[in-house]
Amino acid sequence: MTGVCKNWSTWLKKTRFSYMTQEQVQQTINWLNSIKDAVINIADIKDGQKIADFGCGSGLLGFGVLEKFEDRVEIIFSDKFEDCLDECKKILNELKIKSNVKFLQSDITKINLKKEYLDTAMTRSVLVHVPDKQKAFSELFRILKKGGCYCAFEPIISQNTRYYELLAPDSVSDYFEFKKAEKEFMENPLDPLVNFSAQSLDDNLYEAGFYDVTVNINKVTSKYSPNKDAIKNWFTLPPAPGQKTVKERFLDYFEEKKVDNFIAEVQNALSDKEVTISSDTALIKAIK
Ligand SMILES: C[S@@+](CC[C@H](N)C(=O)[O-])C[C@H]1O[C@@H](n2cnc3c(N)ncnc32)[C@H](O)[C@@H]1O
């Protein structure tokens, strides 16, 4: 793992922005704020309710709820990792609202709350880091009241444009070997980042017991012209703490010299040329 990615709070504050220009950072912050608003809007929160932001990180959703409802709701910031809760506590210290806020260190697959405690459970880009989504949904179902709501936003990484789709077969050596390897690691059932689809989330939620489930997919297509450094970052920046980079994934198949040569050839083939990349995201609402 590289030195820039030690734990989740560092990743959320620094690593995820490390390769971006100031303009891209601002675009990402705007995008995160729009997701926060979308999730909170579909949650249809009412005064007096008990809400939790699971896998809260630096509290995107939790602080969004606090901004809107202040102390008129009980809000729980919950994460598997203490450093994320510490980050939220620091932010909270700068706000005026202190009452009705709780912190809970808990894995989303084994939530330390009694059953039927919450009105609303929310997550943003958390399931994508949880290998067993079914277990997480069963726990969320257990701790929600009857009629309670689970709302979430998740990227469906398995549907992202693949590198081999951007390349002409004759633009890199051993194109078909790299294509086969990429297809394989992008469909690895043990990799939490890619072991799910919109359909499997829908199935898992019904299986957990939710009766009214909506998984709305938004396909975003963007065109841009990456330079050589940006292309290198595709291969060398970790997608999350403890997760292999794309280069490391290829190293499971090929020697380093061959992978480095592939990266250099991708840089030559694509740098400063327009590429079209698409990705799917899901806005999820499920009622118990
Ligand atoms: C991409 S971050 C998202 C953080 C935050 N929800 C946001 O919207 O900015 C993923 C978060 O999931 C948390 N996480 C990962 N695995 C988890 C698990 N099994 N249980 C609870 N939280 C988890 C991480 O600690 C991290 O805070």
Gist?
The protein has eleven helices and seven strands. It is α/β, with parallel strands linked by helices.
Describe this structure in words.
With 288 residues, the protein is an alpha/beta fold. The chain has a domain of 195 residues: 3-Layer(aba) Sandwich (Rossmann fold), CATH 3.40.50. It is 41% helix and 22% strand. A 7-stranded mixed beta sheet has the order 3-2-1-4-5-7-6. Helix 5 links the parallel strand 4 and strand 5. Helix 2 crosses helix 3, helix 5 packs across helix 8 and helix 9 runs antiparallel to helix 11. The longest helix is centred in the first third of the chain and has 22 residues. The radius of gyration is 20 Å and the shape is globular. Bound molecules: S-adenosylmethionine. The site of S-adenosylmethionine (SAM) has 20 residues, from helix 1.
Please describe the structure with a list of short key phrases separated by commas or semicolons.
binds S-adenosylmethionine, 288 residues, 41% helix, 22% strand, Rossmann fold, alpha/beta, globular, 11 helices, 7-stranded mixed beta sheet
